[in-house]
Amino acid sequence: MLSLTSLAGWEEAVMASLRGASGTLEERDRQIERSGLFGEYPAILSAYVELFQDGGSSLEALKRAVFLVWRAAMAPSTETGIASLPDATARAVIEALARDGAAGVVIAATHPILSGPAVDRLKNSAVTEIVVSNTLPIPDEKRFDKLTCLSIAPLLSQAIKEVFEDGSVTKMFDGQA
């Protein structure tokens, strides 16, 4: 089993390799794919999962695992080097959070596709709440108690009003557009 220090060094080496990729997104993607880097982060994440399940450095390993799961969801793989993570890995991180005393585990998604076994997996997970927007229709048969669906209608309404009144859509986002 690798130590936290070894895993941090491994991550740094992967990040250094990613920074070396250049060109368009497609060119970077091909370079990273050829180098085998897309396989590194799932292995690193699995090592963190193994560490926190073992108990020795559990809290720090858990924090790093949560960060990697979040990072994989928030940025393109050509930026992170994290290709798709196995479902079981993300579930192990969520279960560890719940087991280690988290007050709750909330996940969020902008566009909830909820395909295949997603609904059953989410219903039966340790997640306390799943917050999504209604950018895609969610049929009644895919709705469940833990699912909170937020309407984007007020945001669209305000944007239309700003455009119609020669206002600023950018100001809706505190100037961060």
Summarize the structure.
This protein is mainly alpha-helical and 177 residues long. The chain has two domains: 1-101; 103-177, Rossmann fold. It has helices at 4-19, 25-35, 40-54, 58-74, 77-80, 87-99, 118-123, 153-164, and strands at 106-109, 129-133, 147-150.
Walk me through the structure:
The protein folds into 2 domains: 1-101; 103-177, Rossmann fold (3-Layer(aba) Sandwich), CATH 3.40.50. It is 53% helix and 7% strand. It contains 8 helices and 3 strands. Strands 1-2-3 form a 3-stranded parallel beta sheet, with no helix packed on it. Helix 1 (4-19) packs antiparallel against helix 3, helix 3 (40-54) packs antiparallel against helix 4 and helix 3 (40-54) packs parallel to helix 6 (87-99). The mean pLDDT is 85.
How would you describe this structure in keywords?
3-stranded parallel β-sheet, 177 residues, Rossmann fold, 2 domains, mainly alpha
Q: What number of structural domains do the residues give?
A: 2
Unreliable stretches (pLDDT < 50, length at least 5) are: none
State the distance separating the first and last CA atoms: 44 Å
Q: What is the share of helical residues?
A: 40-55%
What is the helix tally?
8
Write out the strand line-up for the largest beta sheet, numbering strands in chain order.
1-2-3
Strand tally is: 3
Strand content: 5-15%
Judging from the principal axes of the Cα atoms, what is the shape? globular
Q: Which structural class best describes the helix and strand composition?
A: mainly alpha
Rg over alpha carbons: 20 Å
Order of helices and strands: HHHHHHEHEEH
| Main β sheet profile | 3 strands, parallel
- Give the mean pLDDT: 85
